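step=encode ok
step=design start
structure_in=
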């Protein structure tokens, strides 16, 4: 049976079709380059620092391993939901080693040469779930292997293991919680890889979280985590204020976002102006409950597949460029999805997705250009909105073009949007301060 053959060797047969879309391979970024590291599997090590082994109960004679699903990886900076089914989410800062090649029964020297990159990771743990499972003698896989359970920083490309004493530390809301040194590991990364290779065939794309020093402790909704290891890119993430996992029972689809934003088919666009342009805290809250989990998934790249179609791409842009401004009004997070939104916009123009949309839909696809604090993007914005107003005589589009010109003028004058300065912690220049004091200044 052809399908059986495909399943056995893992390859698609020529002409064969997948029953469901193939899963996205989670990726980590390699600092200072456009390289990404596709993650195959996540291996973790228990009690690799004596002080942490002591706080967990007892020291151990051999390293022991467990795993998380590869898609538990999330690239930082990121906001993650507080996981379900726990009231005791613990942080564990760890050195991550990424394998450029693998094998079986490796000696330590060969194992060391398999390491192609290193980074900082946090092994998030539902400690209460783990404790119950341990007490009952059951597997604690789900205490470690839940969604978003492995936030990771950018990787540093290396040639072999990371040598020397290097402090690793983790702060919660600025308070130092964990501090240790990678030299205190009971088993070195090379020793761990060698030991693990006696149990499984390791492969390029595998990552190993090498254990945590003492000081593990709880994270609450709304808290900010920062972690670093000397010489490696720092990691930061926050735990969402509301339980985003609870805010949507079923996954939101692109058409749900479009219907919310533009109304059901046939809705006059004027009926949507209140939604688009009014500052209204209650309205923002309704959007948050309905769409925050989806917005955060989009920000993490989990919904990239939506960009394959013009309407899916527009839904992503609405989440990352419009709803972000409602959900995170007057905070830096309102703008932190802007780069991603602009990339979706520019790529959409290149692919001709804008002309496949209705004019008013295309206007919102173009909006990330207007939001950009740089003249080249503003010039593109004017070009796009000018073409759009030429496509359709609807006065609403002339209005959008007028606004594009007003935004362009601000960037010509200041090079940035002065009304964002206070939110983003930027100092006003005297010229900006004078401008902001004018009635009706800013957007
Ligand atoms: Mn751990």
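sequence_out=
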């Amino acid at each position: 049976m052809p399908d059986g053959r495909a399943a056995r060797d893992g390859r698609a047969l020529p002409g064969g079709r997948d029953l469901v879309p193939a899963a996205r391979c989670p990726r980590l970024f390699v600092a200072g380059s456009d390289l990404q590291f596709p993650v195959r599997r996540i291996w973790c090590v228990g009690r690799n620092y004596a002080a942490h082994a002591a706080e967990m109960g007892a020291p151990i004679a051999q390293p022991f391993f467990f795993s998380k699903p590869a898609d538990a990886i999330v690239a930082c900076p990121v906001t993650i939901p507080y996981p379900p089914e726990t009231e005791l989410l613990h942080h564990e800062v760890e050195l991550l080693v990424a394998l450029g090649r693998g094998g079986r029964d490796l000696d330590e020297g060969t194992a060391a040469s398999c390491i192609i990159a290193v980074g900082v990771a946090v092994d998030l743990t539902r400690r209460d779930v783990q404790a119950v499972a341990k007490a009952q003698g059951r597997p604690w896989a789900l205490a470690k292997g839940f969604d978003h359970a492995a936030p990771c920083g950018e990787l540093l490309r290396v040639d072999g293991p990371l040598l020397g004493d290097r402090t690793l530390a983790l702060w919660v809301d600025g308070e130092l919680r964990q501090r240790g040194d990678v030299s205190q590991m009971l088993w070195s990364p090379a020793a761990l890889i060698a030991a693990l290779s006696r149990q499984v065939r390791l492969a390029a794309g595998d990552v190993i979280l090498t254990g945590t020093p003492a000081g593990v402790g709880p994270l609450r909704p709304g808290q900010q985590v920062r972690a670093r290891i000397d010489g490696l890119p720092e990691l930061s993430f926050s735990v969402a204020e509301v339980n985003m996992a609870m805010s949507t029972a079923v996954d939101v689809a692109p058409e749900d976002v479009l219907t919310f934003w533009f109304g059901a088919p046939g809705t006059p666009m004027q009926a949507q102006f209140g939604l688009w342009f009014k500052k209204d805290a209650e309205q923002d809250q309704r959007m948050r409950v309905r769409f925050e989990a989806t917005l955060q998934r989009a920000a993490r790249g989990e919904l990239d597949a939506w960009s394959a179609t013009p309407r899916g791409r527009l839904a992503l842009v609405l989440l990352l460029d419009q709803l972000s401004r409602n959900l995170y009004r007057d905070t830096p997070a309102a703008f932190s999805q802007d780069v991603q939104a602009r990339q979706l916009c520019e790529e959409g123009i290149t692919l001709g997705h804008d002309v496949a949309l209705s004019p008013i839909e295309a206007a919102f696809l173009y909006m990330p250009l207007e939001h950009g604090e740089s003249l080249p993007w503003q010039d593109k914005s004017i070009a796009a909105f000018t073409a759009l107003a030429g496509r359709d005589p609807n006065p609403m589009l002339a209005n959008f073009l007028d606004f594009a010109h007003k935004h362009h003028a601000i960037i010509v004058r200041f090079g940035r949007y002065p009304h964002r300065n206070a939110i983003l912690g930027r100092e006003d220049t005297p010229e900006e301060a004078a401008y902001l004091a004018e009635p009706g200044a800013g957007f």
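step=design ok
step=annotate ok -> The chain has two domains: 27-242, 244-436.
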